[in-house]
Amino acid sequence: MAPGVDEVTRSLAPFAVLDLAALVRMKLTSLRDIDRVHVADLLRVGLITDKVRARLPTDLLVRLSDVESHVDDD
After folding, report:
1. Where are the beta strands (DSSP E) in the chain?
2. Domain boundaries, the chain
């Protein structure tokens, strides 16, 4: 699912930054190996919070849980 144009943050920079929940949703929708790595990295550093989880549909929460179960805390 592609992020909507309203899911960006405007800043002083000359470009828009994608909302974190939209990025996570996009990664979990594609779920390629590299997407799993990116989601695992976001989990490890604590960026996928309850607020982000609340914005994900149920089917993607299942995928997130699967990725999370394979994250090791090295």
Report:
1. 8-10, 16-18
2. 16-69
Please spell the DSSP secondary structure of 10-74, one letter per residue: E-SSSSEEE-HHHHHHHHHHH--HHHHHHHHHHHHTT-S-HHHHHTS-HHHHHHHHHHHHT----
Q: Give the pTM.
A: 0.81
CA dist 74 → 39, 42, 44, 64 (Å): 16, 14, 9, 19
Q: Per residue in 16-65, pLDDT tens?
A: 778 899 999 999 999 999 999 999 999 999 999 999 999 999 999 999 99
What's the CA gap between 68 and 72, in Å, rounded? 9
Residue 37 CA, chain-centre distance (Å), reads 11
Q: Residues 26, 3: contact at Cβ < 8 Å?
A: yes
